[in-house]
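[Meeting: bench + compute handoff]

Bench side (C.D.) handed over the final construct sequence. Compute side (W.E.) agreed to return the predicted structure before the next meeting so the bench team could plan truncations. Sequence as handed over:
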Amino acid sequence: MEEKRMLNVTVDGITYSYPHGTSYRTIAADFQERFPNDILLVNRDGKLCELHKVLDRDCTLRMITAQDKPGIQTYERSAVFLMLKAFYGTVGQDNVEQITVEYSLSSALFILAKGGFTLDQPLLDRVEARMRELSAQALPIEKRSISTDDAVELFQRAKLIHKANLLSFRINSHVNVYSLDGFVDYFYGYMVPDTSYLKCFGLELFENGFVLRLPTQKDPGRLGEFRPSVKVFRELYESNLRSEALHAGNVAELNTTISQGGATSLILAHEAMMEKKIGDIAAEIASRKQVRFVMIAGPSSSGKTTFSHRLSTQLRACGLRPHAIATDNYFVNRDKTPLDEDGNPDFEGLGAMDVEQFNTDMMRLLNGETVEIPSFNFKKGQREYNGNFLTLGEGDVLVIEGIHCLNDQFTHSLPKESKYRIYISCLTTLNIDDHNRIPTTDARLLRRIERDARTRGYSAQATIKMWPSVRRGEENNIFPFQDSADVIFNSALIYETALLKPYIQPLLFGVPRDSEEYIEAKRLLKFLNYFLPIPADDVPKTSLMREFIGGGCYQV
């Protein structure tokens, strides 16, 4: 028998030799003891590869575990597949009408299930037990390429109409499908090689559905804490109902609307829904006669600035006189900015703010005094006073936007009844199909990439590189306070990814193949491929999306 050709594999700067055709799983096993968590994928010269793939060239490999973003995404996706297999097997294929993975909720996925069964905890316990049985059997998760037409027919027969409709918009002649012990499904992204890799999960009844609890990227060995924000869940649920009312609950429905010439009507209808919500918030503020401070906070790229302008317009319509104040003007001078754990200036922590001066100024305004509002000179890194005097009369309200606006420590002197707190975030409920959700962070990252390129000249690579640090700041300074808000405002628009696609694609193609950010750029490009594009012509100048693509009527 002919001896196999040896190939060079470099790991952590050291080169090893393996026979041509060796699986990456075999290679990963040789390095597993170096990692506290299972190796789930390999990064081969900047390209992610599943472990069932085999070595066919000299290469450099980096091992990917669930402590890496692609790894935890692979774990989540595979756990969903395992749950679906177990659920269908427990209740019977014919008894399942629909199982929909809706959105992420506090280290878990919220899932709705409909059919000829009673959804209760005893049923979920049986499904979870079946998942553990399947995990113990180390059943292979197999991947194969089939023609798109065959895939559409396959999913139609399986009553997975959402997947059949989604694939009908695919240009590619072939698609990859996964099978697990005879159960076939389509997923956007990679999978673990077999069920033995899936050990950490749990099922719990929640509201009118259930949650699939999962580990976190920080600690993949155990379940993440499940402490959901009830207010955020309610807003997500209501947003889902609004999407269904517009017949755009998933990408296939959105593409159908676009392909049939209904994009303009969809845009205007969703914009009208959003304007009504803003008007309702303004009316609520106007009804609370003691409110003088409207505090607005939310994570990056939520559209806080445009929202503040639109809310101010609605407040004027209610007979109030809004005045905008940016908390950025209350930064401490740059030489007083505290340092983070890496020794860099921590501009996002509460210590970067002159909390006492802010409270002093706001209390003086509340007491009817005239106050000179500062302006922060970012070039000099110093606060300045340029004659911007303000006095609050009857009917005057301050619209204050900033990262710490929901944190009571930031507004500790202000009476509770004088504050109305708004949490704004882009909480997308549009999913690719019933089993493939779109993370809300993806929607915000796409917005940020376009805005950074347009207004700051940043490359997509630069924005992707800084995104993890942005997310850490949000987790520390924003998310813990979201339930203290009087109202949650969802700034996600059903049509926005289709709108952003033509803007974002060229930027993502500009990310160098040899950069660390290339994998994320490629993932986003694959994601955008599911959407038909729509032009910006009919997007109103007041739209929140104008903050990101330009052409709006507000100065943002």
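W.E. noted at the follow-up: The longest strand covers residues 96-104. C.D. will use this when planning the next construct.
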